[in-house]
Amino acid sequence: MLQLNNVDVCYGSFKALNRINMSVQSGELVVLLGANGAGKTSLFNAISGLGRPAAGAISFDGRRLDGLKPSAIVSAGVVQCAEGRKLFPQMSVLQNLMLGAYVHRRDRAGNRQRLDEVMALFPILAEKGQQPAGSLSGGQQQMVAIGRALMSRPRLLMLDEPSLGLAPLVVKQMFEIIKKINGLGTTVLLAEQNAFAALRIADRAYVMENGQLVLEGDQDTMLGNEQVRKAYIGA
Q1: Stretch 51-64: mean pLDDT
Q2: Pick from 46, 101, 122, 132: most CB atoms within 10 A?
Q3: Helices and strands, counts by H and E, the chain
Q4: Residue 164 has pLDDT above 90, yes or no
Q5: Helix, strand, or coil here: 211?
Q6: Can you give the CATH number for the domain in which 12 is found?
Q7: Side-chain half-sphere of 94: how many Cα atoms within 13 Å?
Q8: CB 32 within 8 Å of CB 191
Q9: Is 143 part of a structural domain of the chain?
Q10: Which of 153, 165, 161 is nearest to 195 (CA)?
Q11: DSSP per-residue codes, 29-97
């Protein structure tokens, strides 16, 4: 579904990504592990069209994404849920959610159906729909951010550090929701520092260090890898 071939991303003279080769198959839940500054967000932004690669190619279902506008990439079915949620705090929960449906704004019936699906996934948001998004707890705000991304009807959902800053119990709930989203048919690419929790729900994983992919493997391989356990799991 998603294919990156020899992708470089540069910020001036600094090379943030160096010859990235990776793939995500339809229906998979793939985890991208790495410390702060490893290049995970730069990779997501390159896929989303927010930062153009200096070299290489990014394809989705055989169609080149690099060079397309971000709105065209969203319309193609590739949607990013950014780190830090990036909500509009003074706007209501419902208004924030509906912003995700902007690329489908002419399909009102489809958007109503999609909103019902999001509310079924996050029942608390139905109760909080008219409240300012900024008044919600951190976990509830993350639900709004993911719900907003789902309103864009992604075929590939990219989640950037969704557990960041959340309490342990909320983190557990968040990963259960991500697994459920994947089980309902949405392919997921998940960038995470919480390696153990992420690997428990993953099909495959990549490890990124200093802008390069240094390891790749399925769930069992990565959980059993001593280097991964020492660096990211603490065992």
Answers
A1: 94
A2: 46
A3: 10, 10
A4: no
A5: coil
A6: 3.40.50.300
A7: 9
A8: yes
A9: no
A10: 161
A11: EEEEE--TTSSHHHHHHHHHTSS--SEEEEEETTEE-TTS-HHHHHHHTEEEE-TT----TTSBHHHHH
Token digits for 45? 């932004």
Does residue 184 or residue 84 have the better pLDDT?
184
| pLDDT for the residue numbered 157 | 98
Confidence of residue 196 (pLDDT cuts 50, 70, 90): confident
Strand order from edge to edge, sheet including 78-81: 78-81, 156-160, 187-192, 29-33, 204-209, 212-218
Q: How far apart are CA 64 and CA 157, in angstroms?
A: 18
Tell me if 41 is assigned to some domain: yes
The residue count for the chain: 235
- 155 lies in some domain: no
CA torsion through residues 209, 214, 219, 223, sign: negative
Give per-residue pLDDT as tens, 12-41: 999 999 999 999 999 999 999 988 889 999
Q: Which of 99, 80, 73 is nearest to 88 (CA)?
A: 99
Long-range contacts of 16-19, Cβ-Cβ distance < 8 Å, separation of 24 or more: 16/42, 16/211, 17/42, 17/43, 17/46, 17/53, 17/211, 17/212, 18/210, 18/211, 18/212, 19/56, 19/212
Q: Total domain count for the chain?
A: 1
Q: Which domain holds residue 52?
A: 1-75+189-235
Q: How far apart are CA 24 and CA 190, in angstroms?
A: 11
The secondary element (H helix, E strand) that includes residue 4 is strand 2-11
Phi-psi region of 214 (alpha: psi -120 to 50; beta: other; left: phi over 0): alpha
The confidence score (pLDDT) of residue 235 equals: 52
Instruction: Classify residue 134: in a domain, yes or no.
Output: no
Of 178 and 36, the structure prediction assigns the larger pLDDT to 178
